[in-house]
Amino acid sequence: MTQPWPRESYVTGGGHAHVALIALSMVKLPDPLPVSRRKHGMPEDGDGPGSVVIVVKDRAEDPAWFAEQVIAPFTELIASDLGPSAAATALAAEHAYVIEAELADPDDNGHVQAAWALAKCVCEEGAAIVIDVYAARAHLGSEVAALAPERRFDVMHEVTLFFEETGDGSLAAWSLGMRKFGRPDLVLADLSPDGATEAAVLLRDLAATLADGERIEPGDEVSAPDGHKLVAAPFDAEAHPAVAVDGPAILLRVLA
Fold first, then answer.
1. Contact 122, 71 (CB under 8 A)
2. Are strands 137-140 and 16-25 parallel, antiparallel or unpaired?
3. Cα(153)–Cα(2) distance, rounded to whole angstroms?
4. From CA 6, how far away is CA 97, in angstroms rounded?
5. Are residues 147 and 122 in contact, defined by beta-carbon separation less than 8 angstroms?
6. Which residues pair with 232 in a beta bridge?
7. In this structure, are residues 254 and 234 in contact, taking their beta carbons and an 8 Å threshold?
8. Which position among 24, 196, 213, 255 has the lowest Cβ density within 10 Å, counted as fewest Cβ atoms?
9. Going by DSSP bridges, is the β-strand pair 16-25/129-132 parallel, antiparallel, or unpaired?
10. Closest of 208, 199, 151, 220 to residue 180, by C-alpha
11. Phi/psi zone of residue 227: left (φ > 0), alpha (ψ -120 to 50 degrees), beta?
C-alpha cells in the first residue's frame, strides 16, 4: 500500500499547491493509461490522486500552436539540462501529455507523488522527455520511468537552485519549484562569490523545511549554517533583476 508523502511539520495557512509536468512523446500512448498504484507509486490515501489530471496535446491538431506553445518555451531548458540530442527529440515530438495537480494548502505531498506516478507510467509507455515546469528542469523519460515507486520524498528532485552573478560582482541565489507545496520560493542576494556552497545548503535546508509543511513569513528569522541570522522580507523583482522567479517569493537578508 503506497502512503502519501507526509508533511510532518505541516502548518495551516499556506497557498495553493500546483504541479505541472509535460511529457513529450513521438508515439501516441495507450488510452486509458495503465496506471498502477503498486507499479507506479500512486498513493492510495489522501487528496493527491483526485487532484491530478492529464491532458493530451497532439501536434497534428494544430502544428503551429504545438510548436510555439508546447515546444518553443522549453527548447533552451531541455538543451541546457539534457543536451542537443534531447532538444532534437523534443523538437520532433508529436504528442505532449500535460500532467497537473492542484490543491489548496495540502497537508501532505501526495499530489506531487501522484503527478510523478502518472509521469512514470507515461514514460514507461514511451514518452522521451519530461519537463518540470515550476522547477524549470528537464528529465529524460528513461530516468522518470526508472523512479522507484516506493521511494521517499526528495526535495532536490522537486526544487532547482539557481545562481547568477549581478552587475556589482555579488551573487544571487534562488529556488524554483516551491509552488508545488503552496510555499514561496526563496531568494538570497548580495552574496560573496565564494559563498555559493553555503547558500546552496541554506536554500536546500529551507526548501525541505517548507516542503515538510512549515511556513516562512516576512519578519521571520532563520539561521544560516555559519550561524548568521537572516530575516525574511517580501521579494521585490525590480530591485533584483538578476533573479528569475515567477510567483510568490521571500527574500532572506542577513541581519546586521
1. no
2. unpaired
3. 12
4. 27
5. no
6. 252
7. no
8. 255
9. antiparallel
10. 208
11. left
Cβ(217)–Cβ(232) below 8 Å: yes
Alpha carbon 177 to its chain's center = 4
Q: How high is the mean pLDDT in each 10-residue block of the chain (256 residues)?
A: 93 96 97 91 94 97 96 97 97 98 97 98 98 98 97 97 90 97 96 88 95 95 81 93 93 82
Quick one: CA dihedral 25, 27, 33, 39, positive or negative? Answer: negative
Report the pLDDT value the prediction gives residue 77, as an integer from 0 to 100: 97
Helix axes 84-91, 75-82, angle to 10 degrees: 150
Burial class from Cβ neighbours inside 10 Å (0-12, 13-18, 19+) for residue 34 reads: exposed
DSSP string, 121-175: HHHHTT--EEEETTTTEEEEHHHHHT--TTPPP-HHHH-EEEEEE-TTS-EEEEE
Cell of 191: 552574496
Over its C-alpha atoms, the chain yields an Rg (Å, rounded) of: 19
**Single-letter code of the amino acid located at 78:** I
DSSP state of 2: P
